[in-house]
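Pasting as-is:
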Amino acid sequence: SYPAEYRIGEMAVHGIERTFSVHLPRTEAVGIALSIVNSAISASAHDTERQKQTERLIEDSTKIVERRLGIEVERSSFDYARFATHMRYLIGRLISGEHASSGAAALLPELLERYPEVSSCGNAVADYLGQNLMKTLDEEERVYLILHVNRVFERETAKRP
């Protein structure tokens, strides 16, 4: 989570509301926070090759999701932006050898049972990333990846007539 960026997002929403006499949903603060985080990632990614590799891995992962789940992911959507942001952090952690540790790994069996198609897709993305980065995604990372894939899947399928 990014409390400082979220607080800035809240302040921006409040300022926009006050300046333009409009009401915005509080979720707009999240979007602004994600934009700030994405900008910080881009600004600090001084290694152009690594940045290109990351973007290629995200695009290839998105194509895996589209192909395996039979959806078309709208690259300009908020949900895709969240997915791509998660992927950037995941790839960064894999490259640096960091590990997420929140105890979420315990959710993996339930996700596999409850969302078999999405879980299989998430695991395919995890395997793809692992092969390309010569790293292994632990269960914790797989849980978060599956959850983000599921969010994109649900949003895209909700748009269908």
